[in-house]
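Researcher: Re-running this chain for the archive, since the previous output was lost when a drive failed. Same request as before.
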Amino acid sequence: MLQSCYQQQFIEAGCDEAGRGCYAGPVFAAAVILPKNFTHPLLNDSKQVKESNRYELRNIIQQEALAYAVASVDNEEIDNINILKASFKAMHLALDQLTLSPEMLLIDGNRFVSYKKLPHHCMVKGDGRFASIAAASILAKTYRDDYMKTIHDEYPMYDWANNKGYGTLSHRTAIEQNGICKYHRKSFNILPQQLTIFSK
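Model: Regenerated structure tokens:
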């Protein structure tokens, strides 16, 4: 059972990212401020929720949240600054867009770069513990999945509509056969040495 909030005194925003371990595409992050008493029986860490329920939850979260925002950092910037810094930047960009100013942040994971001197609490597996972080994980995951589906049509051989850029067998096989494209993260060293970048 998720906790509806960490504390009652301050306005808190939950933050989470999606796509940190992917071979291709941006990293997405979301920030969500929920009502203090918000609960939903389906809400959980996005990885524990089936796809159809994630989209149902997205609609509910967007209707019920006091504020929410989603942001992304693309693969080129990931290569320039590294995936950890890109994840933090995406969270900061999402926080920048909130229409209600939070007074405390709940961050999924064990590290974070402070945002505007706001107090923050890093929560290991927080997306399975706190409703606002779980809600952020749902938004980040669904928005990122939608993005990967749109670029699938440009490079269908990588099967992004299904693997969403993760290093599945089909994705790795496609890289071996075709090389990498402009959406791949070159800093992840996923390209076999004998292959070159696929350009069209």
